[in-house]
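Section 5: illustrative case.
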């Protein structure tokens, strides 16, 4: 089928409801966007950025990929971060992972999957880096949960070390990086206590996040 009438219908109904609440909503939104937040999250369909934090269009700039990975040379992600920080001047960058992440799960197993293994390699690096702490967790599900959390900590750390964030802080721009994890089973976000607002906070925040459980 070439058309998706059910989705177009849902769109019409959504736009009608938004307009009924605020007749100027779309006209105002068309003028400019000024989101305060950049969201870096997983592509998982169960973790939609706007909905789980109750934000409307225009309020959050979004980048999503498998397992919310921030790779130092990923120019897709870096371009999003640069636009958000340098042009939109967002005040917060949120790295939000989630428990039960299929990408993290696949990375924690040593099965050959193909192309995606190159992407998952970054999470396998996280797993290897924290092998001692992870191996000390006897329960398999708990160990998987902890790897999901550690992945957020590492990716938030990677955000802090990008030239973009470093330059913003050097210029005195107000910008904080946050590490969050979402639980699909209850719809709730947990803060992983990895909030960083300047280069001098990176090392301490990292140590706390790695050393303490959520
Ligand atoms: Co995921």
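Designed sequence:
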């Amino acid at each position: 089928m070439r058309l998706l009438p059910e989705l177009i219908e849902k769109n019409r109904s959504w736009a009608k409801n938004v307009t009924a609440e605020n007749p100027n909503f779309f006209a105002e939104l068309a003028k400019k966007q000024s989101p305060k937040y950049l969201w870096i999250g997983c592509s998982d369909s169960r973790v939609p950025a706007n909905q789980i934090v109750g934000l409307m269009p225009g309020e959050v700039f979004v980048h999503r990929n498998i397992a919310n990975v921030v790779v130092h040379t990923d120019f897709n992600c870096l371009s999003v971060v640069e636009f958000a920080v340098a042009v939109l001047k967002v005040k917060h960058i949120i790295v939000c992972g989630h428990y039960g992440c299929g990408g993290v799960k696949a990375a924690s197993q040593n099965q050959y999957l193909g192309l995606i293994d190159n992407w998952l390699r970054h999470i396998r690096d996280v797993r290897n880096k924290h092998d001692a702490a992870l191996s000390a967790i006897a329960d398999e599900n708990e160990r998987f949960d902890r790897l999901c959390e550690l992945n957020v900590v590492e990716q938030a750390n990677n955000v802090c070390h990008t030239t973009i964030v470093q330059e913003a802080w050097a210029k005195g721009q107000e910008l904080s990086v946050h590490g969050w994890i979402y639980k699909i089973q209850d719809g709730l976000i947990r803060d992983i206590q990895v909030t960083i607002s300047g280069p001098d906070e990176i090392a301490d925040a990292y140590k706390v996040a790695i050393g303490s459980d959520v």
